[in-house]
Task: structure prediction
Amino acid sequence: MADMLKRVPVREQEAKVRATNFEEVCYGYNMEEAQEEASRCLNCKNAKCIEGCPVSINIPGFISKIKEGDIEGAYQVIGESSALPAICGRVCPQESQCECKCIRGIKGEPVSIGKLERFVADYALEHDIKPKKAEKSNGHKVAVIGSGPSGLTCAGDLAKLGYEVIVFEALHELGGVLVYGIPEFRLPKEKVVKKEIEKVKELGVKFETNVVIGKSTTIDQLIEEEKFEAVFIGSGAGLPMFMGIPGETANGVFSANEYLTRSNLMKAFDDSYDTPIAAGHKVAVVGGGNVAMDAARTALRLGAEVHIVYRRSEAELPARVEEVHHAKEEGVIFDLLTNPKEILVDENGWVKGMKVVKMELGEPDASGRRRPVEIPGSEYEIELDTVIMSLGTSPNPLIASTTEGLKTNKRKCIVAEEENGQTSKACVFAGGDAVTGAATVILAMGAGKAGAKGIHELLK
Amino acid sequence: MYKIVKAEKLADMIYLMDVEAPRVARHCEPGQFVIVKLDEKGERIPLTICDYDREAGTITIVFQTVGASTMKMAELKAGDSFRDFTGPLGCPSEFVHEDIESLKKKRILFVAGGVGAAPVYPQVKWLKERGVDVDVIVGSKTKDMLILEDEMREVAGNYYPCTDDGSYGHSGMVTTKIEKLVEEGHQYDLCVAIGPMIMMKFTCLLTKKLNIPTIVSMNPIMVDGTGMCGACRLHVGDEIKFACVDGPEFDGHLVNFDEAMKRQQMYKTAEGRAILKLKEGDTHHGGCGHCGGDE
Result:
């Protein structure tokens, strides 16, 4: 009999091996492991885990189906709430969502809800189980801007209700941050992302790539000229920030977006693709979020010695605990309470090092986090050939600046109602990072759902 | 897929193509660019829009073979397709938003270097169609390398070809031609210079001395071209700008050319290796990175 207080461990690629390849780190459960883990679920009447899920998946419902061995049934239960379970099962911060509310977690370890969701979704991908599609069209036409998590979710939900949906994507591949941002070793592109998007296509959603809204056409033109009755903006927050310190335009300084886009979207890590990447031998990644971990682990796999340079301490790292743990296992070095002052540049314009200063934590600031303060006289130099800036991103102002009457706040985020995505402009809805600033995949999906509901209320 | 309806060799290493891209053709303005991607494994390459036909839904691009990707592109023929073709990107030239009557009063000089004649052409044409005559200097290494001559002659007020080797037109660099025109008594309110960075740099050094405000079109390394990565960032005065969204046109007297030229060299070795790989085919041994030749 298994120890009911502990979760069934998940099989992973060994740290030393995986640090040299781009294969997925976590192998996921097999049927036997999934059923054993599912048996730990107490099937609570008043299931708290559902409250923790931003799209309210019927968690005990799908786990019961796993217990019965009805994986297709489990997939349909998840499908009522989520269009991208293979992705969310992999990248959601479950420890602060569904799993942190699990009753099992009070005495022991919570049920591995994310890994079970992933198991069900992967099973559906492998066995080509199709989602339920609308019986007939309702004759209404809706445009979705952006094919990231919020756009895909909104499009999928509307298609299920019989809407004719066209998704416009600026890049040449669909998926937004799922293809350009999150690396292959966390989220396989061919095996998972592409197939998951195929399922959205099977619902009847159409996609047009290489369309930059605000340039190739505008939202006003989509409404006036192409007769879309409603628009959902899920354009994300893709504008990178830099520090504004000397030397930042040197060769070898990248935004994490550029580094990851080259590696993930353009597959620069694979020699048979044309896009180059200056991998670097000694790399500093500045920042402590998930994107910083992704960039650091990517640089590591390209053969570099990698340092995370973060101005607060380990307790404040905004990245997921699992990612920090994985990064450490693989050999990423953490230079905590350290902040860059200047990037040192050689005579050819290349990075040769970075001047940093040690920090200590002072009084809590407005956000409640203890503010890092420089320790006077503690500056020192480190030798480097590559610096990756991972300081966060903000929404691209392109859509807001080309859409008449669309209100934004001072952080350049689009202003929209939380419950239905309604913006300041009639027939225009928005959700995801474009509204909240950089957040999580599942929150973006939740906003996509809310937007679909808002649009349905308007047009039905 | 975006079909190539015309493919033509304009000069040694310089090619022109008309590509079907209706959305781009419907919305583009002079000064903007596109990003093309040849095939599944190709890279994204920025190219300035040289001409457009809104009715036919086509965009004309002109490119020079400088690396592996453009060499592969040069082999495409009418009927072939690009996998991806995105645009229009960047901001239109400033004059697009200006009052035509005040433009007519301005004396404008366009300076094109090499393949830079291609992005200069739609601007001069746009102005000509609105009754604004401008002077155009086009420079190239030799007569054979001069492109779009007939087209440019037709839309330019005064057209001044120059060749570095003196094989045609004015003998010398575009900068010596500018000096000469000014010496002869021509006065200009604005200069627009587009070409290799080194040519734009020296044009700006001269026009600054001559007190002629100058616009340049920057051509840094780009990846997405929509403002999400900052690969194309450059210093304009004290500010950092992204050429793909804030430009590509900037006040040339404020651009830090030395830094921009260094950034352009960033993948020199990687590019060199890609060409080697293409030329050597199966006999390719992995580039000089393996024998240590260039590292």
